[in-house]
Every structure is written in C-alpha cells, then in structure tokens.
Q: What sequence folds into this?
C-alpha cells in the first residue's frame, strides 16, 4: 500500500503521535537517524516500556555530514517488514524527512517523519528541547 502520489512519504507526525502508534502497534518501529555523537551525548528515545529498542542508523556521518550510502540497506536489515509503520527521528525533522522519502522509494509503505524530532525547534533563547519534539513532549528517553 503506497502513500498518495502527492506525498513522497507517509507524512509528518508529532512525537506524541509516534509514541501512540508505537504503543498501539507492536509491528511499528522507531528509527533514529541522527549521528553516533548525538545518540551518545544528547540521548535516545527509550522504548523499554514497550519491550523494544530504537534502531540507530545514521543518515549522515559526523563530522563530515556526508550521507550514509548504506542507509537503505541497513534499514532493510533492521526492519524486515516493509509494510509495518516506521517512524523516523532526527534532531528536528529535516534528516528524518529525507530518510522517510528514501525508505518510501525503497518500498517501505508507511515511513513517517517525526516533525519535531528529538530536540525540536530552538526556542527564543536558541535552546532546543523546550518547544516541541520528543524531549519537550515529555516522552521516555535516556542519556546515551
């Protein structure tokens, strides 16, 4: 079941909606496309209450910022069911949107972008984690 032709992926959802989908559907998966440095120093969503783990697959490498050419292959290995919902997460929703498009093009039927990401948009003081996203929506997470 492919997304509507007007959209290159299943769409944008909030972190709270992603959490609800993960709770409701045991087949649903979460892929964090940030860098290893971000996972280790900023933190990761914690899915232990659901009996699952986050799939950590870099979209871009740190510090070069070059795109991971093996992203789709690595995702395919981690996510054997291309018809199951996949929620993609980065810092604020840009890299994860690109990753959702790539997975959709590779045959994943329900690749969603978590629009606010893990840290969300910067607030008026330039700080992340307070406005929107996984942390601001008070969802479970742990320090790397």
A:
């Amino acid at each position: 079941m492919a997304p509507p032709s007007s959209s290159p992926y299943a769409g944008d959802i909030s972190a709270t909606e992603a959490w609800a989908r993960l709770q409701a559907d045991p087949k649903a998966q979460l892929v964090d496309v940030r860098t290893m440095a971000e996972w280790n120093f900023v933190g990761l969503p914690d899915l232990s209450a659901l009996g699952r783990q986050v799939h950590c697959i870099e979209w871009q490498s740190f510090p070069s910022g070059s795109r991971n050419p093996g992203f789709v292959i690595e995702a395919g290995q981690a996510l054997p069911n291309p018809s199951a919902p996949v929620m993609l997460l980065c810092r604020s929703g840009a890299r994860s949107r690109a990753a959702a498009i790539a997975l959709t093009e590779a045959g994943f039927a329900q690749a969603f972008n978590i629009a606010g990401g893990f840290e969300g948009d910067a607030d008026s003081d330039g700080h992340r984690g307070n406005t929107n996203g996984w942390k601001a929506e008070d969802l479970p997470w742990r320090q790397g």
In short: Strands lie at 11-13, 29-32, 44-45, 55-56, 86-89, 111-114, 141-142. The radius of gyration is 14 Å.
